[in-house]
Amino acid sequence: MLSRVADSLYWTSRYLERAEHTARLIDINMGLMLDRSRLSAEGRWQRVLAAVGATQSVWTREAEPSTEPGEWVGVSALVHALCFDTAKATSITSCITAARENARQIRDEISTEQWQRLNGLFHEIRRLRTAQPSERNLAEFLPTIIDGVHLFQGVTDTTLSHGEGWHFLRVGRYLERAWSVTTLLDLYQREVFRDDGMSDAGEYLEWVGLLRVCTAFEAFCRVHTAELTHERVLDFLLLNADFPHSVRYAADALQDALAAIQQQTRTQHGGELMRVAGRLKATLGYGQIGEILAQGPARYLRHILEQCREIHNLIYAVYIQYSVETALAV
Amino acid sequence: MNTAPLQGTHEHPLLRDYFMDTAFDEMFDGDGAIRPHYAALFHELTTLPPEEIRRRKQSADASFLMQGITFTVYGRDEGTERIFPYDLIPRIVTGDEWARIERGLTQRITALNLFLHDVYHDQKILEQGVVPRDVVYTCQQFRRQMRGLRVPRNVYVAIAGTDLLRLRSGEFVVLEDNLRVPSGVSYMLTNRRIMKRTLPSLFRDYGVRPIDHYPQALLATLRSLAPEGRPEPTVVVLTPGVYNSAYFEHTWLARQMGVELVEGRDLVIHDNVVYMRTTAGLKRVDVIYRRVDDDFIDPLAFRPDSILGAAGLFNAYRAGNVTLANAFGTGVADDKALYAYVPAIIRYYLDEDPILNNVETWLLTDAKQRAHVAANLDKLVVKAVGESGGYGMLVGPQSSELEREEFRRRIEANPRNYIAQPTLNFSRSPCLLEDGSIGPRHVDLRPYILFGDKVTIVPGGLTRVALRQGSLVVNSSQGGGSKDTWVLGA
């Protein structure tokens, strides 16, 4: 497979995963805002911004020349921008556009059904995209994104050969998922998790929110009942082996897809990538929540993020942007 | 122009608007009688209920849409994709007519390849004054980088698509040779596929000669041109990318041949060897069917601002490590001014008379011819020598005084850049019109010629139709469409 094609497949699915994640993040936090909570509106949305990797300065209103810092733009303008602003690379519209653009470059490598789903989603967004923020508009927009991405994934699994290209799509999806869930856990553990293990109603709401962002509330309850503790939430989202939005599950799937690619390409330069993907899988597979909490979850989570970044860099070095000298020196 | 309604015994409501004039009609002869090879088709069309015809037309349109057979129009909204309009009524060429076309095209491509080899080596034809030196050297497509360079089998033009017209007398003539990156062959083949589904029994009864082996023939041609010592050559199709108007065709051809479709950025040149970048490492490339113009193919050798090509490709080519089809610099042989010399070129190299004639052409660098053209602009067609696709041309009888004045000015400013030809009243073929009736529209014919270890011309071609009544421009970018071309057994 051409490296360019692999690259486009990888980013198509990363962007789609990101769009879906952002849509759910906005949806849940809009709901949580209706309840009273310890968090101010500003604090909540700063966290959302941090979770999608946006720097705050970009999202505050341009400061007057004399006054600093810039004024907080207000929730509805911010949400509108997160959904629709094409000038912001992290907005949902930008993600879908980028996914479609990547897929369009390799129109021939994906199935017609996949293209139709993605293209349809893109045109649907253009229809819903309006200049003025409105609640009705959002109520239609966010489910459209989530459903659209789910449909794309379903169609991908049933219409595309499960060969190298399909595995690259999986790599993109699960690497993005591991990254975004870990980032989210990192933000929550700083603010919401407290040491006493007891929780008040406000905190309870935040945990439910976190689980819902990861579509994990029902699955969590089935394992732990609705009795939420920060330890259990962290354990479930980080280390559960069966739940598809847990970091461990994503790492397993990622390692599996990379191993399949390695086997198909038989490249001789894939050893280091295999090692790093295997290490991430082992870190999570053999992780133990008590230990993690004792040593400080922040460090552990940061370590996971570093490994994700390393895997991304190695995918590029092995399959996509390798130097001619490396490739020829066998 | 005198036009008369169709006379004779075929007073069918579908033909109520059918007219004839001095132009050759593909279906009816001068007396309004049906040509024998159109009889069965005519019968089918006039006996099928109109709803049935409409239904088949709709199902054919839907097939095109579903397959995403589109082209991009330049100069409009970026990336406007349109379906190539398609006409349901096939154009039929008899076995005898085809035999002559085939011999004529073989002769022409052979002579033009000899000419290119000569121009880039000994230049005997220039020394002997058969073709003036300045015509070659003032041609923008002349590549001095190609001087003295050997190409495999001395084949410069491996893929050509020559445009033919049929004159009043019924004779086929050559309008232009497309020797750089001719397009449209995917339409020829998809038209055929859809036609087989639309009029299956008629198709079978006619004994139409098959064209479906074109992709294999193309692949065999490309492989036969591989550099020496590469017995199992890797062939790729090089596309400028997704925004190119013929991108559909590039992907289609790659898929039909079962080879990779690459862009310039997929290619890496190291030690004058071309590789493509794959997930399994670098893979050596031996033959490139390139659909990128000379100018853009290598920023080191040609236009430095090009991002469509691959740096170093020309050096790898010069080193003989990769074959490009077509070769660089073939444009010198399809320059519209050089075109006037092709009959002389055929006589010079082959010592034969041309089987297919040229259209009369005035060269505007000649003062006498220029004066004639300037005085008769309203009767002539003026074309820019380097343009294609129907861009940059003036159709005299359909132009305004303002447009003619503009062209007079342009010709004076740069006479080498233009040629003039008579406005040809070329042949018309019956077409299914919007309102469901049948009317005559002008058509041309572009057969596709392959030249590798031998010349292969699949029996057929792209018949392009000027769908607007009275229009003489058949290019898809100018509102043209196409129809299937049936070549009958001899």
* Gross geometry of chain B: globular
Question: What characterizes the major β-sheet of chain B?
Answer: 5 strands, mixed
Question: Which segments of chain B are poorly predicted (pLDDT under 50) over 5 or more consecutive residues?
Answer: 75-79
Class by alpha and beta content of chain A: mainly alpha
Tell me the helix content of chain A: over 70%
Tally of separate helices of chain B? 14
Uncertain ranges of chain A: 63-67
| Beta-strand percent range of chain B | 15-25%
* Average pLDDT number of chain B: 89
Order of helices and strands of chain A: HHHHHHHHHHHHHHHH
Count of alpha and pi helical runs of chain A: 16
Number of domains of chain A: 2
Biggest sheet strand order of chain B reads 15-7-6-22-23
What would you note in describing this structure?
The complex is a heterodimer of chains A (330) and B (490). Chain A is mostly helical. Chain A contains 16 helices and no strands. Chain A has helices at residues 3-33, 41-51, 56-59, 75-84, 92-105, 112-128, 135-159, 164-191, 201-213, 217-224, 230-239, 247-265, 271-285, 289-295, 297-320, 324-328. In chain A, helix 1 (3-33) packs antiparallel against helix 2, helix 6 packs antiparallel against helix 7 (135-159) and helix 8 runs antiparallel to helix 15 (297-320). Mean pLDDT of chain A is 88; it is low at 63-67. In chain B, 30% of the residues lie in helices and 22% in strands. A five-stranded mixed sheet of chain B has the order 15-7-6-22-23. Residues 75-79 of chain B have low confidence and may be disordered. Chain B folds into two domains: 1-227 and 322-359 and 444-490, no CATH class; 360-422, Dna Ligase, domain 1 (2-Layer Sandwich), CATH 3.30.1490. Chain B contains 14 helices and 25 strands. In chain B, helix 2 crosses helix 6 and helix 3 crosses helix 12. The two termini of chain B are 36 Å apart. Chain B is an alpha+beta fold. Chain B has helices at residues 39-47, 50-67, 95-119, 124-127, 133-137, 185-198, 200-206, 214-224, 247-257, 294-297, 313-318, 342-350, 367-375, 401-413, and strands at 4-5, 19-20, 70-73, 80-83, 86-93, 159-166, 172-178, 235-238, 260-262, 267-270, 273-278, 281-284, 287-290, 323-325, 357-358, 362-363, 380-384, 393-395, 418-422, 428-432, 438-442, 448-451, 455-457, 463-466, 480-487. At the A-B interface, helix 1, helix 12 and helix 16 of A face helix 9, strand 9 and strand 11 of B.
